[in-house]
């Protein structure tokens, strides 16, 4: 599975590891500072069993004596680089990706520094193993691969115990970032019930890997509401509640109890909702956004990273956001989430109302273009984008090609999971009206994408600006090579979370999200060379997260939403303030405390 969980109630206000040259001693006094020694009260076997403090064969001689480890370890003290080499050889010996994923889970429960450092050194190769698509296989097999419990399990039959169960994970100062799921709509594989705990864990691994969120200050949670997955209900090894999903009033009470308990117990924590089902994802986000710092990656993360790609594309085409026309094909959680981010950015930039801004976006779903006359067939998220029927009287709005002919969009986005929906006719029609069409087939996994970048490039004679939902190799046209950017949420959500955590934000506002998007778009390689990707590669993600976090923090300060004292105003100083508080996979000296 992707990764770890253990929880360590504070043994000191958490410190952490990072390469010393990144550190800024001015900020060494901060509670989340990563400079200097790490306070530790554990000794002997207890220390070796704790993945956060354990260094394995990396403990130096003086720490072995001081922490009663002599006789418990082989004599040769090894460097972290040597340990990484050995772990990588073990990883490579596993016969398939699921076995590699299981090996990584096991490593995470032994030594977190080694686990994260191994991934950092081999990020391109391991990303798909610790996250999608292999993590999907691990989640589907959760009850069969189960070895030890990781994370917090809350179930709908015990609403009265939610507060007490959550309270076991530390004090008010111990938790910065919570990821919670109800397991209903996981990574394109649907309802996985209690196995959803692994998506909460995997997302938190990405926050540490990509933005330096301290791994012992995070909490993965699954809300077990039952499951409608027949296979799981009939599996005697299934570990969750074996009953159909509970919905309605009891479900809402369960969510509310969780949110209120989490806020009371961990008042500084940012709450990240993940992979909730279509009827609930948007509704829950809308319910709590005005009250607490929270985020939904499927709604907002996908919207942010897509908008960043679009903004980079508009920069290349020299078109203003307020003059752009966009068609979104597939108007579920992701499609309407993208529409919302684009609408909010247009409104923020141009001073238009959100209603006016929404008129630049045409949303298409199963019945064709969304129209007002669809009435109660529209989800609440689709309603703002439904067009007046009078606009389309006598015009065909049932298929994508007809809509493209009429709208002449600059941007076409696919979130439909309908393979090959962007046909040669559709793309050629778009390219006939727009010099540099921006085409983003985002459906995952690869077999569900709306069009292959190779074909889009061919059909537009190399003019299209393309980003996809899965990784694709570069494409060529008449000897010229064009990079295909991946709209990977991991370039965006960790930095947003880092900014909210460090500034201790009261809320995450629309303007803070727009600031994050602009910071990501500013890192686009296409700004220097239009044949390069619209978005930066995930291998540069830690640096990108610094810029995003700074943008989020500056906007939070401007809106009066940051509660942390002493946030630097000057840009360079703010960057160093952020870097000093980002955990990194390096061993820190241990300082014995009672």
Summarize the structure in short.
The chain is α/β, with parallel strands linked by helices and 594 residues long.
Describe the structure.
This is Malic enzyme. Its cofactor is Mn(2+); Mg(2+). It catalyses: (S)-malate + NAD(+) = pyruvate + CO2 + NADH; oxaloacetate + H(+) = pyruvate + CO2. It comes from Amorphotheca resinae ATCC 22711. There is one protein chain. This protein is an alpha/beta fold and 594 residues long. It has 3 domains: 273 residues, Malic enzyme, N-terminal domain (Rossmann fold); 189 residues, Rossmann fold (3-Layer(aba) Sandwich), CATH 3.40.50.720; 90 residues, no CATH class. It has 23 helices and 16 strands. A 7-stranded mixed β-sheet has the order 9-8-7-10-11-12-15, sandwiched between helices. A 5-stranded parallel β-sheet has the order 2-4-3-5-6, sandwiched between helices. Strands 1-16 form a two-stranded parallel ribbon. α7 packs antiparallel against α10 and α17 runs parallel beside α18. It is globular, with a radius of gyration of 24 Å. The N terminus is likely disordered.
Task: Provide key terms for this protein.
594 residues, alpha/beta, Rossmann fold, 3 domains, 7-stranded mixed β-sheet, 5-stranded parallel β-sheet, 16 strands, globular, disordered N terminus, NAD, Malic enzyme
């Amino acid at each position: 599975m992707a990764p770890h969980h253990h929880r360590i109630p504070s043994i000191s206000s958490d410190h952490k590891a990072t390469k010393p040259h990144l550190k800024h001693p001015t900020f060494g006094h901060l509670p989340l500072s990563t400079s200097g020694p790490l306070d530790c009260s554990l000794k002997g076997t207890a220390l070796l069993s704790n993945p956060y403090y354990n260094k394995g064969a990396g403990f130096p001689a003086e720490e072995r004596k001081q922490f009663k480890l002599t006789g418990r370890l082989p004599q040769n003290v090894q460097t972290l680089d040597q340990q990484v080499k050995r772990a990588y050889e073990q990883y490579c010996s596993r016969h398939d990706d699921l076995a590699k994923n299981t090996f990584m889970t096991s490593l995470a429960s032994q030594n977190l520094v080694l686990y994260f450092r191994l991934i950092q050194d081999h990020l391109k190769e391991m990303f798909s193993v610790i996250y999608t698509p292999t993590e999907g296989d691990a989640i589907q097999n959760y009850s069969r691969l189960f070895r030890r419990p990781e994370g917090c399990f809350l179930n709908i039959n015990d609403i009265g115990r939610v507060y007490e169960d959550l309270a076991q994970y530390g004090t008010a100062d111990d938790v910065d970032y919570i990821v919670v799921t109800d397991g209903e709509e996981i990574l394109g594989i649907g309802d996985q019930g209690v196995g959803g705990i692994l998506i909460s864990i995997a997302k938190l691994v990405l926050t540490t890997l990509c933005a330096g969120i301290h791994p012992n200050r995070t909490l993965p949670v699954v809300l077990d509401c039952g499951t409608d997955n027949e296979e799981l209900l009939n599996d005697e090894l299934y570990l969750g509640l074996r009953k159909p999903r509970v919905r309605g009033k009891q479900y809402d009470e369960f969510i509310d109890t969780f949110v209120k308990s989490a806020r009371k117990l961990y008042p500084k924590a940012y709450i990240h909702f993940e992979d909730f089902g279509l009827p609930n994802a948007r509704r829950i986000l809308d319910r709590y956004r005005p009250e607490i710092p929270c985020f939904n990656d499927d709604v907002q993360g996908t919207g942010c990273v897509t908008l960043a790609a679009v903004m980079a594309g508009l920069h290349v085409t020299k078109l203003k956001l307020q003059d752009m026309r966009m068609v979104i094909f597939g108007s579920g959680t992701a499609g309407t989430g993208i529409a919302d981010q684009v609408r909010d950015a247009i409104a923020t930039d141009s001073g238009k109302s959100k209603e006016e801004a929404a008129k630049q976006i045409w949303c298409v779903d199963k019945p064709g273009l969304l129209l007002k006359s669809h009435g109660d067939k529209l989800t609440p998220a689709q309603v703002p984008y439904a067009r007046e029927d009078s606009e389309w009287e006598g015009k065909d709005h049932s298929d994508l090609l007809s809509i493209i002919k009429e709208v002449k969009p600059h941007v076409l986005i696919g979130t439909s999971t309908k393979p090959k929906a962007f046909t040669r006719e559709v793309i050629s029609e778009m390219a006939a009206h727009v010099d540099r069409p921006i085409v983003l087939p985002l459906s995952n996994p690869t077999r569900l994408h709306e069009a292959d970048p190779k074909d889009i490039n061919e059909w537009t004679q190399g003019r299209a600006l393309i980003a996809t939902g899965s990784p694709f190799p570069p494409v060529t046209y008449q000897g010229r090579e064009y990079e295909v950017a991946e709209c990977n949420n991991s370039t965006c959500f960790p930095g947003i979370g880092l900014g909210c955590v460090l500034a201790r934000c009261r809320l995450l506002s629309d303007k803070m999200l727009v600031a994050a998007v602009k910071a990501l778009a500013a890192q686009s390689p296409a700004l220097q060379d239009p044949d390069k990707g619209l978005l930066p590669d995930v291998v540069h993600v830690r640096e990108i997260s610094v810029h995003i976090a700074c943008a989020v923090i500056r906007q939070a300060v401007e809106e009066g939403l940051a509660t942390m004292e002493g946030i630097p105003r000057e840009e360079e100083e703010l960057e160093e303030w952020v870097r000093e508080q980002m955990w990194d996979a390096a061993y820190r000296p241990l300082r014995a405390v009672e």
